[in-house]
Amino acid sequence: MCKITYIMEDGTKKSVVVDKGTTILEGAINAGIYLDAPCGTGKCGKCKVLIEEGLENIEEISIVDGNYALACIARVYGDVVVKIPNFEGVVCKSISGYSSPSIIPDINIKKISTTVSESSNYNLTLKAIVKLNSMNLSDKVNLILKNNNVVNVEKDFSGIYGLSIDIGTTSVVVYLVDMCNGVVVDTISFLNPQRQFGADVISRIAYNNGDLLQKVLITELNNAISKLCSKNNIKMDNIYEVTVVGNTAMIHLFCGILPKNLATYPYVPTFKNSLYMPAKMVGLDLKNADVYTLPIIGGFVGADTVGAILSTEMHKKNEISLLIDIGTNGEIVLGNKEKLLTCSCAAGPAFEGVNIEHGTNAKEGAICKVKINEDCVYYETIGNKKPPIGICGSGIIDIMAELLRSGIVDKTGRFVGEHKNLRDNKFFIDDTIYFSQGDIREVQLAKGAIFAGIKILCHEYGIDIEDISKVYITGAFGCHIDVKNAKTIGLLPDLNNIIHIDNAAGRGAIMALLSEKIRNEANELAKNTKYIELSSHSNFETEFISALRFSK
User: Fold this and answer.
1) Which has the closest alpha carbon to 532: 252, 300, 315, 265?
2) The sheet that has 275-278: what strands, in order across it?
3) If we measure between CA atoms, which residue out of 311, 313, 295, 333 comes closest to residue 508?
4) Separation between Cα atoms, residue 489 and residue 441, nearest integer Å
5) Which among 10, 197, 276, 363 is least surrounded, fewest beta carbons within 10 Å?
6) How far is residue 70 CA from its own chain's centroid?
7) What is the DSSP letter of 262?
8) Which of 41, 74, 45, 47 is CA-nearest to residue 59?
C-alpha cells in the first residue's frame, strides 16, 4: 500500500491510501477529487500534474516536463505528493429571465390557502400530516398539492419552483424556474465530472461502472442545486419538479444504467421511453420533487435532441428546417411537420478542445476569436484573461478559417503558405499556444462527419441542400461560433437563413417542466422521428471522404 496526498489550489490537502500500481487519477477518483482527464490514455496531456514529492515512486513512462506526470497513466509504487491544477467550470451563456411565450403552464401543482382544521378535507401525505399535527387548528396554512396530494405545508407561502437539467457529455447546465409564471430565475453550469473517465461516451461506457459514473454526476448536481437555491434564497423543499435532457448515454448514466449496448453495433439503448420517478430515487437531495426525463429517439440521438426540436418548433412548420446540435457529439435533424429525419455524427470531441494540442473547454483565458493578417495575429480570450490557456471551440473554427483565407493552408488541409508565425508545421497564435498539422486533421474529421450527415439526411429526404429554408445552430459551443467562418471551413452549408439558438435542449426541458401537453408532444416526437444510422449507410464513406476537403 502507498499514500497519495493531493494539494489543492487553496492549499488544503487530502490523502488516500491505495494499492501499489494505482494511477494518480484512480486515487483522485477514490478521494472524490476532480481531475480533468479527457482521453484517459496519456495521449492528450491535459491531466498533467506537478509531483512535489516522491517522483521516484512514479512509473517513469508517465513523467513529462521534469517534475510533472500524466495522472491517467502515472502508476504509483510509493508515497507521493501531488499538486492539483486550478479547476474552472465551463462558461455558459445564461438565459435567466427567459420564459417561453407559447407555453401555458399546465402541470398539476397548485397552492391552496386554508386552515389546519380544514386541511383534513384534502389527500394528505404522511409528511404533511406530521407538519399539520404540530400546528393549532386555527392556524392559516398554504397547502401545496401535486397531482391532488398535499406534498408540503407552509405558513408563509415561499413559491413553487422547478429545475430543468441539460446533461451534456462535456458540460451540465441547471436552470431554476419559477413554475408559477414560467420564468427562469437563475442558471448554474459546470463541467461534467464524468470527463475524468473519458471525453466521449464510449470511453465512459468502457469504464464499466455505471454506479460510480452516476455517483460523481449526482454529487455535483446536488452541490450545484444547493448553491443555486442558496443564492436565490429558495428552500430545496420548494423544488417540486425536475426535467432532464441529455444524449442517450447521459440519460442512462443519470439513472444509474450502464448503456453497454451503445458501445457495439447496432448501438441499441436499454430504454427509449420517458421516465417519471421521485428525485430521491436517483440520489437528488430534493424531498418533494419528481424527475421527468424526456424520451430518447435512438442510440446516439437522445432526449437533448427532442428538447431542441421542441424549442425550435420545426415539427410544426410547413418549411423544411435543419437543426444542427454541435457538441462533443453532433446530432442533426431535418424536416417539417410532415416528416422528421435525424442522425448522429461521430464528430469526436475536437470542437470541445479534446485531441487539439492546445485545445480547452470554454472557460476564462481560452482563445475564442482569432484574426490573421500579413504581419501578426489578433486574438481574444474569454474574460479578456491573459496569457491564454488554450483554444476553445469557437477559436478553433476561427483559426482554421483564417488559415484557409490567408492561403497558409490549402484545400487538402496542408500547410503550404508562409507567415512569420508558421514554424515546423505549427502556427503560433501566441508565444506558447499553437495550432498544428495534427489539429487541422482533427478539425477535418469532425467537420467532415457533420457535413456528410447533412448530405445523407438530404438524400434520404429527397431534397437538395438548397431546399432547406432555415438552419438552426445550437449545442455546447454551436451558438458561439462565427457562422461565416463555419461556412468557410465547410462545417455549415452555404445558406443565408442560419439562426443561433442558445441552449435549445435546455429550453425544451423548460417547456416540458411547465407543461404536461409538451411532455405528451415530446413522447410523440421521439416515436415518429426516423433515426438514420450513418455507420451502415451505403453513401456515408463517399460523402465523408468528399467532406474532408476544404471548399475555400
Assistant:
1) 300
2) 183-191, 171-178, 161-167, 239-246, 290-293, 275-278
3) 311
4) 12
5) 10
6) 25
7) G
8) 74
434's enclosing H/E stretch is strand 434-436
Give percent above pLDDT 90 in the chain.
77
Whether the Cβ atoms of residue 304 and residue 506 lie closer than 8 Å to each other:
no
Closest CA to 41 of 202, 191, 263, 193: 202
Q: How many angstroms from the chain centroid is the CA of residue 315?
A: 24
Looking at every residue in the chain, the average pLDDT score rounds to 92
Q: Are strands 275-278 and 239-246 parallel, antiparallel or unpaired?
A: unpaired
Residue 109's nearest CA partner among 161, 154, 185 is 161
User: Which pLDDT belongs to residue 55?
Assistant: 92
> What gap in Å lies between CA 530 and CA 551, rounded to an integer?
30
CA dihedral 367, 373, 376, 377 (to 10 degrees): 0
Give whole-number Cα distances, 103 to 100, 321, 517, in Å.
6, 22, 9
Helix (H) / strand (E) element for 330: namely strand 330-335
C-alpha cell recorded at residue 377: 495575429
C-beta atoms surrounding 107 within 10 Å: 22
Cα gap 280→288, rounded to integer Å = 9
The grid coordinates listed for 38 are 479527457
What does the alpha-carbon distance between residue 270 and residue 81 come to, in Å, rounded to a whole number?
A: 42
How far is CA 91 from its chain centroid? Answer: 11
Q: Break the chain down into helix, strand, coil percent, rounded to 5.
A: 35, 25, 40
Q: Which amino acid, residue 540?
A: F
Taking CB atoms within 8 Å and a gap of at least 24, the contacts of 372-377 are: 372/399, 372/402, 372/403, 372/405, 372/406, 372/408, 372/419, 372/421, 374/419, 375/420, 376/421, 377/421, 377/428, 377/429, 377/430
Longest CA pairwise span in the chain (Å): 86
Alpha-carbon distance of 448 to 345, in angstroms, equals 9
Residue 548 CB neighbour total at 10 angstroms: 18
Distance between CA atoms of 319 and 468, rounded to whole angstroms? 8
pTM of structure:
0.89
Burial class (CB in 10 A: 0-12, 13-18, 19+), 387: exposed
Q: List the Cα angle 515/518/524 in 5-degree steps.
A: 150
How far apart (Å, rounded) are the C-alpha atoms in residues 419 and 300? Answer: 42
The residues that bridge with 278 in the sheet, in sequence order, are: 290
Joined together, the cell numbers standing for residue 366 give 481560452
Q: Is 85 exposed, middle or buried (0-12, 13-18, 19+ CB in 10 A)?
A: middle
CB 250 within 8 A of CB 294: no
Q: Is the pLDDT of residue 128 over 90?
A: yes
**Concatenated DSSP letters of 153-215:** EESS----EEEEEEE-SSEEEEEEEETTTTEEEEEEEEE-GGGGG-SSHHHHHHH--HHHHHH
Q: Write out the three cell numbers for 15.
A: 490523502
